[in-house]
Amino acid sequence: MAVNLAKGQKVDLTKNHKGLRNIIVGLGWDVNKYDDGDFDLDAAAFLLTGSDKVRSDSDFVFYNNLSGGGGSVKHTGDNRTGEGEGDDEQLTVDLAGVPADVEKVAFTITIADDTGSKTFGQVSNAFVRIVDEATNEELIRYDLGEDYSVETAVVVGELYRHSGEWKFAAVGSGFEGGLAALCGAYGIQV
Asked: Please, are residues 147 and 123 in contact by the beta-carbon 8 Å criterion?
């Protein structure tokens, strides 16, 4: 049975699931039914050191760089419509393969919009979930219930190391400025 988290809550992942090695991080969303136009939302992961910065641009895993951390974090591909049920985009993580100097993996969703007219205020039912890849069991789920009126990027959650174990934190932190703002915060020059 999955643990449902609220914003700010943290939970042990590997301590509670001995032998857990590979996880799927599923991210999903819906566009509000009264908002017209195409919405292309993109999931990404930033592999971060203790200073909350990437080691290099290759530690930014997204639809144009499908693998990072020596192949330990992979993006499974871009979904340009977000239609249908379940996960809209997924990333996989080999927990044992994450480089030792990577202390945290931040999972994000951004709106791909050159006009600046779309925000997370037009998005509903956004979530992140952690699934055991071996058993397909959902272990953790965080539904983003907050209303983001002007934000164009959200850090939905963070997977981080603590005392040799992996934990997950439900973050739900919004950013104005989209992908560029996130990249700047994590040390990537755009």
From this structure: no
Domain assignment of residue 58, yes or no: yes
Residue pair 128/27 in contact (Cβ under 8 Å)? The answer is yes
Compute and round to an integer the Cα radius of gyration of the chain. 16
Token couple for 68: 């990072």
Amino acid identity for residue 160 in this structure: Y
Residue 109 belongs to a domain with what CATH number? 2.60.60.30
- The type of residue at 44 is A
190/184 Cα distance (integer angstroms): 7
Closest C-alpha to 166, from 158, 178, 174? 158
Domain with 162, as residue range(s), is: 3-185
Question: Does residue 190 sit within a domain?
Answer: no
Task: Name the pTM for this structure.
Answer: 0.92
147 located within any domain: yes
Position 79 pLDDT exceeds 70: no
Residue 145 has pLDDT above 80, yes or no: no
Asked if 92 and 26 count as a contact pair (C-beta separation under 8 A), the reply is no
- DSSP letters along 105-133, please? EEEEEEEE-SSS---GGGEEEEEEEEEET
How far from 172 is each of 3, 101, 137, CA to CA, in Å? 17, 25, 23
The total number of structural domains in the chain stands at: 1
Tell me what the mean pLDDT of segment 116-121 comes to.
80
